């Protein structure tokens, strides 16, 4: 990776200041602290150098402690997409799509072995800063999954390719499981059943749809067609960052059969396929008008695996490319 999110860079600085350093300690940074708010990314050299500097100043476990302070909002558009996952493990599927689409890299990979799932972080740690960044990433995974599930799920094993640090206090506090060093890969492992848990948001949504169905069946109160279609559009929107959702996926979330979902949409005068396209177009136009996300990020959030495919689809919808549409506003 040539660049890292400026949000992660700022997070490191804030954590360092919280641990006793001051802004004066960072006067020699190539990018002044007061200039960071105007940036979206920093170079890999700056990012990794800061990791190395802070490890020297605050101890080898600092990167792991930074990971424990991460919140979903720190990850920008990718973090936004995590908010709408239906299962805990889906965040890795979305992360894989995101990095492939925006940087053509395959960072995250899930390897399932029965009751255990290994989340592999494919990185070549060519310098100490990258080792530290990887420790921060795996540490952050723990708190992000707990935030998504609102449950105290914990890893069962963590593996690092680099050598074991002398002081493992921060590592043990963060991971609370066996930690292995000088392994063949970077990975964090969870029970498969934990990664298959519904996210807290998905649980709330499903309960809402179940209550609506109970009212339909017990009180004879049928959900109005326009509200039903809107409900389906919301679920499609939430699912798109993982890719185009199948009708089975949406009907499962609504606790009904594919046939029932198809029939209810038909009664409202729409097909599932057309509703997916309409939702994609609506999201894309709205985001292009806001002008806060890049076109690649919009392609990711609307379910496309390649920006070129998104560009072609948008041109078909509007007779304009995404860039032309944005400039015309």
Describe what you observe in this structure.
- GO terms for molecular function: DNA-binding transcription factor activity; transcription cis-regulatory region binding.
- Keywords: DNA-binding, Transcription, Transcription regulation.
- One of its GO terms (cellular component) is cytosol.
- Residues 230-328 form the HTH araC/xylS-type domain.
- This is AraC family transcriptional regulator.
- This protein is of the alpha+beta class.
- It folds into three domains: 3-107 and 122-154, no CATH class; 200-270, no CATH class; 275-328, Homeodomain-like (Arc Repressor Mutant, subunit A, Orthogonal Bundle), CATH 1.10.10.
- Helix content is 57%, strand content 9%.
- It is built from 16 helices and seven strands.
- The protein has helices at residues 6-18, 44-58, 62-69, 76-82, 90-103, 128-149, 169-175, 192-195, 200-219, 225-239, 247-253, 258-267, 272-290, 295-301, 307-318, 322-328, and strands at 3-5, 41-43, 108-113, 116-121, 157-159, 179-180, 186-191.
- The strands form two sheets. It has a five-stranded mixed beta sheet with strand order 3-4-7-5-6. Strands 1-2 form a two-stranded antiparallel sheet.
- Helix 7 (169-175) links the parallel strand 5 and strand 6 (179-180).
- Helix 1 crosses helix 3 (62-69).
- The two termini are 33 Å apart.
């Amino acid at each position: 990776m040539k660049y890292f999110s400026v949000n992660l860079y700022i997070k490191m600085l804030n954590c360092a200041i919280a641990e006793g350093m001051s802004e004066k300690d960072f006067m020699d940074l190539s990018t002044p602290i007061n200039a960071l708010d105007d940036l979206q990314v920093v170079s890999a050299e700056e990012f990794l150098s800061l990791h190395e500097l802070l490890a020297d100043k605050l101890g080898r476990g600092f990167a792991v402690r930074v990971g424990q302070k991460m919140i979903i909002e720190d990850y920008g558009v990718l973090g936004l997409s995590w908010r709408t996952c239906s299962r805990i493990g889906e965040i890795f599927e979305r992360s894989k799509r995101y990095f492939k689409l925006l940087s053509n890299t395959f960072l995250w990979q899930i390897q399932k072995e029965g009751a255990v799932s290994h989340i592999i972080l494919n990185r070549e740690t060519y310098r100490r800063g990258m080792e530290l960044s990887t420790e921060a990433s795996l540490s952050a995974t723990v708190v992000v999954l707990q935030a998504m599930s609102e449950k105290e799920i914990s890893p069962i094993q963590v593996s690092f390719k680099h050598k074991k640090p002398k002081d493992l206090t921060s590592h043990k506090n963060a991971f609370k499981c066996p930690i292995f060093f000088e392994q063949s890969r970077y990975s964090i492992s969870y029970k498969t059943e934990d990664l298959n848990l519904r996210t807290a948001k998905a649980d709330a949504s499903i309960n809402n749809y179940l209550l609506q169905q109970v009212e339909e069946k017990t009180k004879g109160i049928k959900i109005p067609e326009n509200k039903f279609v809107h409900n389906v559009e919301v679920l499609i929107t939430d699912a798109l960052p993982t890719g185009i959702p199948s009708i089975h996926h949406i009907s499962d979330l609504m606790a009904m059969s594919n046939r029932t979902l198809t029939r209810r949409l038909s009664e409202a005068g729409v097909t599932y396929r057309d509703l997916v396209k309409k939702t994609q177009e609506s999201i894309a136009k709205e985001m292009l008008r806001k002008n806060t996300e890049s076109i690649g990020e919009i392609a990711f959030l609307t379910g496309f695996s390649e920006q070129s495919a998104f560009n072609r689809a948008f041109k078909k919808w509007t007779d304009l490319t995404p860039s032309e549409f944005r400039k015309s506003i």
